[in-house]
Specification:
Blueprint: E1 15-19, E2 26-27, E3 30-31, H1 35-49, E4 53-57, H2 74-84, E5 89-91, H3 97-104, E6 111-114, H4 121-124, H5 128-139, E7 144-147, H6 162-166, E8 169-171, H7 173-187, E9 193-197, H8 202-212, E10 218-221, H9 226-232, H10 247-260, E11 263-265, E12 269-273, E13 282-286, E14 300-304, H11 306-317, E15 321-325, H12 338-348, E16 353-357, H13 359-367, E17 377-379, H14 383-390, H15 395-398
Parallel strand pairs: 1-4, 1-7, 4-6, 5-6, 7-8, 9-10, 9-15, 10-11, 15-16, 16-17
Antiparallel strand pairs: 2-3, 12-13, 12-14
Bound molecules: adenosine-5'-triphosphate (ATP) and 3-phosphoglyceric acid.
Residues 151, 198-201, 223-224, 241, 301-302, 325-327, 329-330, 332, 358-361, 382-383 line the site of adenosine-5'-triphosphate.
Binding site for ATP: 205, 301, 332, 358-361
Subcellular location: Cytoplasm
Main location: cytoplasm
Length: 403
């Protein structure tokens, strides 16, 4: 049974550390999608109103265990303050003097945000003892711990796992809301059940496919992920995103899909660009002709093509349950956003349950003008929701009592 906030007892006057996933997309200092900040507000408002002294912690991006200004949470503190309508004290470090001063200065109902957890090597250390050492320094800043960063719950990291062992801990409201919907997808998805995969974290997400194949009726592969499949079928993919060391694994998935009778749908066309940029020249090409443009092997596939988009949309629309993770192309560049838009539109037309998972996927649908309410659920977790659907035991959930 997942422990919830009620299990922590009275909160007034207590220093409550809340692990959120405020890993939002940034363009310089500008937050391009604040969905993950908004999703954290329910828990934070509840703690504020209960008179807790709230200490918010999060990572942003993947800095290398040392401070790096481009991954600072300062813009997030500013946005959090606007959304809460409350001052947010921002500490320029995580376990140093600035954090101690910020937390020490909190009154009941106040809130502070500490700097990016991943500026400290202990947060993501492989060695258990190193993570534990960092977690114990974090634990000194709080009396209680609320884990609400669903997007990071698949990571065995100090602020997700060890900290929850060190302090009385419970799941926050976002965490429980996410689990309620995703549980429906694992327990009894209504058929036909389709999963759509794309995005750029290819090696992170390929592993999920083997576990999903026995559970789904159709699996559609687009985004950066498609090129490893196309290459596995013998197609040259130019300079597109490719995980060469995964080719054998992918061949295994293709064979397994056939054996299980799963409809594994790969793109038939792609938009090939001269370079990775918003204004690059581009042409639609069949997937066996990616290198047949004037750019030859330097051409890059940046979106699924129109014929593929049409086919994907048809499969999605005729499904009763759909889970989608990972944009179909580089949606941040308008010329390569068509595939993502077509799939998003089809999801809004599903007569059943449609779930969008992932920080970038959620950002994509919003950037393309789709309102959250047009989907059954928008999950803040990309990798996390996929690993949950795989049926994996997630460290950040187990430590909260989830079986
Ligand atoms: N063909 C492609 N080549 C390169 N990048 C691509 C391609 N297609 C999509 N992308 C990129 O994939 C990124 C999103 O991938 P990611 O796997 O991180 O998605 P997510 O699961 O929604 O996010 P998260 O895992 O952070 O929650 C986008 O920034 C998009 O530009
Ligand atoms: O964006 C995400 O999926 C989460 O914030 C986790 O980030 P990570 O993949 O860098 O651990």
């Amino acid at each position: 049974m997942l422990r919830t906030i009620e299990s922590l007892g009275p909160l007034a006057g207590k220093r409550v550390i809340v692990r959120c996933d405020l890993n939002v997309p940034l363009d310089g200092q500008v937050i391009t999608d604040d969905g993950r900040i908004r999703a954290s507000l329910t828990t934070l408002n509840e703690l504020i109103h209960a008179g807790a002294r709230t200490v918010v912690i999060s990572h942003l991006g993947r800095p290398d265990g040392a401070p790096d200004a481009k991954y600072s949470l300062a813009p997030v503190a500013q946005r959090l303050c606007e959304l809460l309508g409350n001052p947010v004290v921002f500490a320029s470090d995580t376990v140093g003097q600035a954090a101690k001063d910020a937390v020490g200065g909190l009154e009941d109902g106040d809130i502070a945000l500490l700097e990016n957890l991943r500026f400290n090597p202990g947060e993501t250390a492989r060695d258990d003892a190193d993570r534990r050492e960092f977690a114990s320094r974090l634990a000194e800043l709080g009396d209680l711990f609320v884990s609400d960063g669903f997007g990071v719950v698949h990571r065995k990291q100090a602020s997700v796992f060890e900290l929850a062992e060190l302090l009385p801990s419970a799941a926050g409201r976002l965490m429980t809301a996410e689990l309620e919907v995703l549980d429906r997808l694992t327990e009894s998805p209504q058929k036909p059940y389709t999963v759509v995969l794309g995005g750029s974290k290819v090696s992170d997400k390929l592993g999920v496919i083997g576990h999903l194949l026995p559970r789904v009726d159709s699996l559609l592969i687009g985004g950066g992920m498609m090129f490893t499949f196309l290459a596995a079928q013998g197609h040259p993919v130019g300079s597109s995103l490719l995980e060469e060391d995964q080719l054998d694994t992918v061949r295994g998935y293709l064979a397994e899909a056939e054996r299980l009778g799963v409809d594994l749908v790969l793109p038939v066309d792609t938009i090939v660009a001269s370079a990775f940029s918003a204004d690059a020249d581009h042409e639609v090409r069949a997937v066996d002709a990616i290198e047949d443009t004037a750019w030859g092997a330097s051409g890059i596939g940046l979106d699924i093509g129109p014929e593929t988009a049409k086919r994907f949309a048809e499969v999605v629309r005729s499904s009763t349950t759909v889970f989608w993770n990972g944009p179909m192309g580089v949606f941040e560049f308008p010329a390569f956003s068509g595939g993502t838009k077509a799939v998003a539109q089809a999801l809004t037309e599903v007569d059943g349950l449609s779930v969008v998972g992932g920080g970038d996927s959620a950002a994509a649908v919003r950037a393309l003008g789709f309102d959250d309410s047009r989907f059954g659920h928008i999950s803040t977790g990309g990798g996390a929701s996929l690993e949950f659907l795989e049926g994996k035991r997630l460290p950040g959930l187990e430590v909260l009592g989830w079986q």
